[in-house]
Design goal:
283 residues, alpha/beta, 10-stranded mixed beta sheet, two-stranded antiparallel sheet, 8 helices, 12 strands, 35% helix, globular
């Protein structure tokens, strides 16, 4: 099910956004939720292979447009909303035809980073997609940094690729003070978690090494794969979309990159919810 006829609402986000509020799809809880931000009025299109790549995902398709500070979000939506939504519906239909479930959000905002970050948490997305194209899906690189994000990394990877024929390569760059045995144990626990989630043991490979520059090593290995899954290392997930490490990997790698976000601490979530309750509509 694809929600392409959402009800318009005025958002209470302090970044002055106006967005849609679609009805959730029915089977979304069984799929890994992925945020796909797209600059809908700047000529972006669905890259080759992205629809098939997201076939087993629940996609939050977030079309956004950054407006000048002096422009009201409602004014921008009145002027551009119909054209932007038509384009988003076209993208959503392509994703749905490939098998994905899709929620559509159209956002006019003064602060793109804060808005996308908010949408990630609103929809409890496991990852954000940096959408480079891919001609085929035969191999996936999962960069494993530690066991803190193991559950989310494996949930996303298995959810997207367990039913495909893709080989999943687990890569871990050892720290200077990290023993080989510790790295091997981490890769083994990650592989076991993937198998528990339905991935065939025969489709899993591992790489363990001591690189001088881990980010360069990930990009080097990524060149041999069709997609990359990597965890967030910065406090703000959205910085990966605007020049931080995952974007740097994406610049060196022609395929798509899934940035798995850290789970938001409960106290942070409660604080934001309380703050939202205190803000008047339209601010």
């Amino acid at each position: 099910m694809t929600d392409t006829d959402p009800t318009s609402t005025t958002d209470t986000d302090p970044t002055s956004t106006t967005d849609t509020d679609p009805t959730p799809t029915t089977d979304a809880p069984n799929r890994p939720p992925v945020l796909y931000p797209i600059r809908v009025l700047e000529g972006e299109s669905l890259p080759t292979g992205i629809a098939d790549l997201l076939a087993d995902a629940h996609v939050v398709l977030a079309g956004y447009h950054v407006i000048p500070d002096q422009t009201a979000a409602d004014q921008a939506r009145e002027q551009f909303g119909e054209r932007a939504m038509a384009k988003l519906e076209e993208f959503a239909a392509a994703l749905s035809d490939a098998g994905a479930t899709v929620d559509v959000r159209l956002v006019f905002t003064h602060e793109a980073q804060a808005t996308i970050d908010r949408l990630i948490y609103e929809h409890d997305c496991l990852a954000v997609l940096v959408p480079n194209g891919t001609d085929a899906l035969e191999s996936v690189l999962l960069a494993v940094r530690g066991d803190v994000g193991l559950d989310r990394n494996t949930r996303l990877t298995a959810g997207l690729f367990a039913t495909t024929d893709a080989t999943i390569t687990l890569y871990h760059a050892l720290d200077d003070d990290e023993a080989d045995a510790d790295g091997e144990a981490l890769l083994e626990s990650t592989a076991n978690a993937l198998v528990d989630r339905g991935v065939s043991p025969g489709s899993i490979d591992t790489i363990l090494e001591h690189p001088d520059a881990p980010l360069d090593a990930i990009a080097r290995h990524a060149a041999d794969h069709d997609a990359v899954v990597m965890g967030e290392t910065d406090p703000s997930v959205t910085t990966f979309l605007f020049g931080m490490p995952a974007e740097q990997v994406a610049e060196r790698f022609l395929g798509p990159v899934f940035v798995v976000q850290r789970e938001r601490p409960a106290e942070e979530s409660s604080a934001e919810e309380s703050s939202a309750e205190e803000r008047p509509n339209g601010e």
